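To: structure desk
From: M.T.
Subject: fold request, one chain
Message: Could you run this one when you get a chance? Sequence is below, nothing fancy, just the single chain.
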Amino acid sequence: MKRFDIVTEADARVLEYGSSIALSAGGHITPLALDTLRQRRVTVVRDAADQDSSALAPVARIERVAVAGDHTSLSLKAALLTHLRGRGLAAEDLGTHSSEPVDYPDTAAAAARAVARGEAHAGVAIDGSGIGSAVAANKIHGVRAAMCPSPMLARYGREHNGLNVLTLGAATMSRDEALAILDAFLDTPMREPRYIRRLAIIRGLEVGTRSR
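Reply: Done. Structure tokens follow.
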């Protein structure tokens, strides 16, 4: 991942569409460059030193959700999208859209990147068990994903661990179970300072600034 102290519009224009860059502590992005980065859907990973703990907390009021799933997810994904839109939320379907086999790391990454770029407040990724999608989504900087098999764990994951991506298993739960888990995830904010402070520790592990 290329690291910048300052990102100009000229820099931004030559970055690969959908790529990621690292911004050094105290680094700067010019206003024109910021617009170009958004247009090219480039993810900016900032040093942990530039972020206080509260800035790492997930959005408390979720209004935009990115949903993606592999070929096993079609029925469940459709139900989740209908449910989200019925709640008045903006729900984007990032695929897949057919029963042709696709690789779950790609679909999970699509939902995770939408969250990392700020295009969505939260993401949902679906595969057969939900485990693989969690592993893949967690490779995207700034994403905290987990497969939650119950509403209790979805609430716990949001409140204690600051999850911003929920993964579900199409083969391991019913439609009603999945909807109950999704509602618990959506309705639980992360507010307690002691939990939010720990997100800075997690970010330190992610970017290599914490060694113990």
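Reply (cont.): Residues 144 and 180 are 20 Å apart (CA to CA). Let me know if you need anything else for the meeting.
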